[in-house]
Structure formats: C-alpha cells, structure tokens
Amino acid sequence: MKNLFLRIIDNYKVKANDNFLLRLALTFFALIPFPLLAQIQKGLPKPTDPVDPSKTSDLVIFIILPIVVLILFFFWRRAKKNRRDQ
Predict the structure, then answer these.
(1) Around Cβ 77, how many Cβ atoms within 10 Å?
(2) Which has the closest alpha carbon to 1: 34, 28, 23, 20?
(3) Residue 24: half-sphere exposure toward Cβ, Cα within 13 Å
(4) Residue range 44-50: average pLDDT?
(5) 77-85 long-range CB contacts below 8 Å, 24 or more apart?
(6) At what angle do helices 20-31 and 2-11 cross, to 10 degrees?
(7) pLDDT (tens digit per residue) in 8-44
C-alpha cells in the first residue's frame, strides 16, 4: 500500500497550482472497499428464509419483476440500435 501511494505521488509531480491533494484523496477513497462505507440499518427485518414461490409477493418481487425488467431492457436496446442505424 505504501508503494502505491509513493507511485501516485511520483506520478503527480507536486506543483503549487496542481490539484494534487484532491487527486490523492479521490484515489484513496477509490481504494477503500465498498462494504466499509456501507451502513447496516438497525431494527429492519432481514429475510432469513429462501424465496418461497408459493407466496404471491415473493413471486412478483423476485421472479416476475426481474424478467419484466430484462424484457424492457432488450426492447430499449433494440430501439436504440434501430435509431442509431437510421
């Protein structure tokens, strides 16, 4: 990790009017793993059992909606391709 920061510092030859600190901070935050930044909400119910297809809500949320989103995505992509070709 130390060598990485030394390479970053060497690449950005520090000047008085350079945005070195901004670039260094953005590079540092890009290297922090996302789970460290995510917050776990307390007091919210968390699903512990697998998806039950006999429940209507589980069926709609986990099976039907993703299929509909995929179909709409493919239609949108085809329309975008047709507009580009014309």
Answers:
(1) 10
(2) 28
(3) 15
(4) 76
(5) none
(6) 150
(7) 666 655 554 457 777 777 777 777 666 565 666 777 7
Q: Which of 68, 63, 43 is nearest to 53 (CA)?
A: 63
Amino acid identity, position 32: I
d(CA 31, CA 25): 10
The structure tokens 């007091």 sit at 43
Name the residue with tokens 């429940």. Answer: 55
DSSP state of 64: I
Tokens 């950005």 -> residue: 12
Q: Which of 8, 32, 34 is nearest to 22 (CA)?
A: 8
pLDDT of 74 higher than 90: yes
Assess contact for 7 and 24: CB atoms under 8 A: no
